[in-house]
Amino acid sequence: MHKPTHCGSPSVGPFEGVGLGAVGRFRVQGAKVLAVDLTGDAVRAKNGSMVAYEGTMTFKKLTGGGNGLRGVVTRRLTGEQMAVMEVTGNGTCYFADGARDISLVPLHGDTLHVEASNLLCTEAGMRTGTTFTGLRGASQGNGLFTTTVEGSGTVAILSTGPAIGLRVTPQTPLQVDPGAYVAHSGRLTQQLQTGVTFRTMIGEGSGEAFQIRFEGEGLVYVQPSERNTIGGRL
């Protein structure tokens, strides 16, 4: 597993920084633009996310998120919607999406679980798919499945506000608001806990409430802005 830079206090659980500068040929510029240097090779990115390029590039829309007919069928069944393009060329291509923040996650043969709406770009040789996540997806209104990225290379993820990675160990499990969840990696199990959120703890919650509890060994990536969920804004 990759090891982001430690920048937190062990007394509250260590905060792990995701990459914000450069990882390989991926570079984040101004927090909200991804620059990728290509030398005749390819990357896969969210369809329509290209904002500029230098050099010679070709763009090809991929069916089913790049996994062919099987990928189409899988995503229709699971509700995970991915419109992906493959970019090939020589030069530099720039990607962005809705002025959201971009973070870089390097993988070394492991798997990243990420919401489809938070996935911006991957190395072309990495494998994408879907995995069952249980009730967590239902609490977010995003279905019961999430997208997986497997292999070795760099993944660019999107977040509303700067994302951080929170370290989970067997001694330090983690509770996360579903609306703030972006992605996770490592050997983690997750459970949906109902009836309590951070806001209901201080008397400001209303309606049905959820938390996700992560246990095991790995990283959970969260954003400072929350999505709306079935239970309202938690």
Short description:
By secondary structure, this protein is mostly beta strands.
Describe the structure using short key phrases.
15-stranded antiparallel sheet; elongated; mainly beta; Double-stranded beta-helix
Name the CATH class: Alpha Beta
Series of secondary-structure elements, N-terminal to C-terminal: EEEEEEHEEEEHEEEEHE
Number of domains: 1
Radius of gyration: 18 Å
SS element count, helices? 3
Give a written overview of the molecule:
This is AIM24 family protein. The chain has 234 residues and is mainly β. It has one domain: Double-stranded beta-helix. The chain is 9% helix and 53% strand. It has a 15-stranded antiparallel sheet that branches. It starts with a strand and ends in a 12-residue tail after the last strand. Mean pLDDT is 77; it is low at 1-17, 65-80, 135-143 and 230-234.
SSE topology sketch:
Elements: E1 5-6, E2 15-17, E3 22-23, E4 26-29, E5 33-46, E6 50-62, H1 68-78, E7 84-95, E8 101-114, E9 119-123, E10 127-132, H2 135-140, E11 145-159, E12 164-168, E13 174-176, E14 181-194, H3 198-201, E15 210-222
Antiparallel strand pairs: 1-2, 2-12, 3-4, 4-5, 5-7, 5-9, 6-7, 8-11, 8-14, 9-11, 10-11, 12-15, 13-15, 14-15
